[in-house]
């Protein structure tokens, strides 16, 4: 199971705050005015505001994530570090993930982070394709939404460097999801099985931009609204493990 950093932050904030508060309202009255605070109280007083600020920022505003695979190529590469807006799909309590303020809902074309339905301790990132009630179909590498084919434009043959080189030779295309344009990769020699699917209410159908190399809704189903984490909006860092270097050109890239 992945380390639950949110739970750690909540626990650390509560413990530090409790130690500081109990000392301030009870034990401090028994100390001589010149006597120093116990070392544990000094640490608690120092770390409490740090833990609290990080908890609030990470839970309600922005959270960083690292891309572990190539399923969203060419939009996102393995080694990209991204920022995710935590309030785009509603304000949720940390750890419990219960929505307390309804701010917005995913839109078609959003690059979305969510808790994997088959293992909620693991975060996934994919593109929102189908909204509740949509009929989604995929035949001959073409995506259909409510019986309308999504336009594709051939950009050429994909060529990447470093970690991205694994997909060299793939068909590089520009797909238009109604008003959202984004790039995808297609392996012409891979023939996926076609499908039709109607998205249930309160759930979302997601696909990877690397269409023939992505574990997505085609294989495990839709994403419940309760599993939403946030919308990815920027790459703030990239570490190319192939040659152990920073890809400076990707830093600050807006995610479309």
Count all strands and give the number: 17
Unreliable parts: none
Q: Whole-Å distance between the termini?
A: 31 Å
The amount of helix comes to 10-25%
Largest sheet: 8 strands, antiparallel
Q: What is the H/E order?
A: HHEEEEEEEEEEEEEEHEEE
Helix count? Answer: 3
Mean pLDDT: 93
Structural class, by secondary structure, is alpha+beta
Over all CA atoms, what is the radius of gyration?
23 Å
Beta-strand percent range? 25-35%
Overall 3D form: elongated
Element layout with pairings:
Layout lengths: L4 H21 L13 H22 L1 E5 L13 E6 L5 E2 L6 E3 L9 E5 L7 E8 L4 E5 L2 E4 L2 E2 L2 E6 L13 E7 L2 E7 L8 E4 L4 E5 L9 H4 L2 E2 L3 E13 L4 E2 L10
Antiparallel strand pairs: 1-2, 2-16, 3-4, 5-6, 5-16, 6-14, 7-8, 7-13, 8-9, 10-11, 11-12, 14-15, 16-17
Helix pairs in contact: 1-2
């Amino acid at each position: 199971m992945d380390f639950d950093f949110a739970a750690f932050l909540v626990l650390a904030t509560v413990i530090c705050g409790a130690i500081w508060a109990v000392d301030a309202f009870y034990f401090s009255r028994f100390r001589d005015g010149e006597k120093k605070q116990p070392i544990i109280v000094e640490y608690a007083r120092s770390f409490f505001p740090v833990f609290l600020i990080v908890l609030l920022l990470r839970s309600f505003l922005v959270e960083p994530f690292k891309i572990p695979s190539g399923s969203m190529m060419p939009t996102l590469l393995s080694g990209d570090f991204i920022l995710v807006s935590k309030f785009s799909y509603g304000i949720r309590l940390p750890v419990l993930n219960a929505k307390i303020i309804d701010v917005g809902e995913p839109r078609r074309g959003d690059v979305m982070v969510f808790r994997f339905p088959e293992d909620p301790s693991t975060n996934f990132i994919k593109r929102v394709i189908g909204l509740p009630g949509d009929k989604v179909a995929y035949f001959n590498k073409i995506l259909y939404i409510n019986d309308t084919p999504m336009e594709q434009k051939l950009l050429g043959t994909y060529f990447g460097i470093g970690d991205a080189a694994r997909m060299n030779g793939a068909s590089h295309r520009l797909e238009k999801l109604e008003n959202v344009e984004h790039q995808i990769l297609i392996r012409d020699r891979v023939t996926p099985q076609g499908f039709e699917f109607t998205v249930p209410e309160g759930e979302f159908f997601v696909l990877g931009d690397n269409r023939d190399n992505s574990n997505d809704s085609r294989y495990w189903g839709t994403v419940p609204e309760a599993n939403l984490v946030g919308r990815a909006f920027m790459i703030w860092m990239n570490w190319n493990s192939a040659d152990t270097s920073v890809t400076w050109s990707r830093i600050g890239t807006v995610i479309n």
